[in-house]
Write a structure and sequence with these properties.
Chain A has 276 residues and is α/β, with parallel strands linked by helices. Helix content of chain A is 35%, strand content 27%. Chain A has two domains: 196 residues, 3-Layer(aba) Sandwich (Rossmann fold), CATH 3.40.50.300; 57 residues, no CATH class. The chains are: A alpha/beta (276), B mainly alpha (239). Chain B: Keywords: Membrane, Transmembrane, Transmembrane helix.
């Protein structure tokens, strides 16, 4: 588990983080959204061990890969050199060629990093963060500078490795739709405080006759609910498991709905509260 | 990331640095001018001056390489990969000291080669002791400045400003002490005191391989204290 417990960080008199509590479990993708200067990078740096002077408790695993503040890498060297260097540094036996291939960077691997576009550099940053074969990933605006298809591709890749390798992730982004579509849980941060914890829900439309059976199946699942019109709402992180359970019990899913309360609405409510 | 992994990679980078070899060669080419002078005009240089030009140039190049080795990770922000635990930060410090120490030995080797060439060409015999002294003083030189540079980065990390500051520490600060030494009727104890300040003694006396025992002891003590402080402080710094 990766967690901050009542963490406060001050720069002189300025409070950057104010009694922040967050946690990230293995395999869970957690989003972090907030305006510029809200404390996102400070929070990520504390989790990654770059900031060590704070109040409160940090539960951190040493096996963390991170992409924070777009590092420039060894710009005059190739992407492949950079990956091999950090692979050797971490002493991991990661297949860097495969990693580049998975991130669709195969054609650029021998080019010097300074010739990369912003989006390519971000992809390289993700690859570098993965070279240590981490149990947790911290990604600060990982899709920054990518074109829409690149964004989709990278987000899918992140979801895939989170599920396949059980990697817990903390991802910050200003693109709320990306966060909403990818994350199991989202923290909204403003002025150094976590204002809201948002758990995107998935709705399963089912036959009325199955409701009783479903109530029994989901008895132990917190945050699961059934609406009057027969929609079973479960946290996004549990949706795969629920889908499998329904399948096993022969419950027919008529429709899957991913929209719940819009993250965008929550975000603007949070920011505008300050101006009132 | 282990100490061994980091050391292997960084030392590998030192040996693969083509610019370092070019600088070394450049210093040797210019430094060999004195050997040619001795050979053609029979002096006026004595054996002690043989590597004077080489030393001046090579130490300047050494400083540039030291500055580069210290600042490169702050420039590329790659220190994010190294500074995630206290242990890694301490490893980083010692690896930088070793890296720059190796460069110093290579440059001292360049001076030794010039002395050997001089012996062959001009029959001015050098003593082996001088070679050891050369290596030791070059190593002291880089260790001292690497410590200073890393010490400063604990508090300030703007790469361009640091570049200017580091070059000023090497090029301007000793001259300022030199000006103080030229003040008429300066009390002897003040003069003696200034001459053992490492910021003055190292850049002034290492080029002529002329550090006194007292100066060497002072510098070593200074390096030791600074190393202790850096090892104590570096895990407590926010990056």
């Amino acid at each position: 588990m990766l967690a901050l417990q009542d963490v406060t960080k001050k720069y002189g008199n300025q409070v950057a983080l104010d009694e922040v509590n967050i946690n990230i479990k293995e395999g869970e993708i957690v989003g972090l959204v907030g305006p510029n200067g809200s404390g996102k990078t400070t929070l990520m740096k504390i989790l990654n061990g770059l900031i060590v002077n704070y109040e409160g408790e940090v539960v951190r695993n040493e096996s963390i890969g991170a992409l924070i503040e777009s590092p420039k890498y060894f710009e005059h060297k190739s992407g492949l050199y950079n990956l091999k260097y950090f692979n050797d540094l971490f002493g991991t036996k990661q297949d860097v060629g495969k990693l580049l291939e998975q991130l669709n960077m195969d054609h650029y691997k021998k080019k010097s990093v300074k010739k990369y576009s912003m989006g390519m550099k971000q992809r390289l940053g993700i690859a570098l963060a993965l070279t240590a074969q981490p149990e947790y990933l911290i990604l600060d605006e990982p899709t920054n500078g990518m074109d829409p298809s690149g964004v989709r591709e990278v987000l899918r890749y992140l979801r895939r490795i989170a599920e396949r390798n059980n990697i817990g992730m903390l991802i910050s982004s200003h693109i709320l739709s990306d966060i909403e579509s990818l994350c199991d849980k989202v923290y909204l941060i403003h002025n150094g405080k976590i204002k809201k914890e948002h758990r995107p829900l998935v709705g399963f439309a089912v036959e009325d006759k199955d409701i009783g059976k479903i109530e029994h199946i989901l008895l132990d699942m917190q945050d699961a609910s059934i609406t009057d019109n027969g929609i079973v709402k479960v946290p996004k992180s549990e949706s795969k498991k629920v889908s499998q359970l329904f399948n096993e019990h022969g419950i027919e899913i008529k429709q899957i709905e991913e929209k719940s309360v819009s993250l965008e609405e929550m975000y603007f409510d949070m920011v505008e509260e300050d101006y009132k | 990331m282990t100490f061994g992994n980091l050391l292997k990679l960084e030392v590998g980078k030192v040996f693969k640095n083509i610019y370092m070899y070019i600088l070394l060669l450049l210093a040797m080419v210019f430094g060999s001018g004195i050997i040619i002078s001795i050979n053609l005009y029979n002096g006026p240089f004595d054996s002690k001056n043989v590597i004077g030009v080489y030393a001046t140039l090579s130490l300047l190049f050494l400083i540039i390489i030291c500055v580069k080795n210290v600042l490169i990770d702050f420039h590329y922000k790659t220190y994010y990969f190294y500074f995630t635990t206290a242990k890694k930060r301490i490893h980083y410090f010692f690896v930088r000291l070793i890296m720059n120490g190796i460069v110093a030995v290579l440059f001292a080797g360049g001076g030794a080669i010039l002395l050997i060439i001089n012996q062959i060409v001009n029959h001015q015999i050098f003593e082996l002791e001088n070679i050891f002294l050369l290596i030791a003083e070059y190593a002291i030189f880089t260790t001292f400045f690497t410590c200073i540079f890393l010490f400063v980065t604990l508090f300030y990390r703007n790469v361009i400003n640091l570049l200017i500051l580091f070059m000023a520490i090497y090029l301007i600060l000793p001259s300022m002490f030199g000006i103080l030494l030229r003040i008429p009727n300066l009390p002897a104890w003040v003069e003696k005191g200034i001459k053992i300040i490492p910021f003055y003694s190292v850049p002034t006396y290492v080029p002529t391989v002329d550090l006194s025992i007292l100066q060497i002891v002072t510098v070593l003590l200074f390096i030791l204290l600074m190393s202790f402080y850096i090892v104590y402080k570096i895990p407590k710094v926010d990056y």
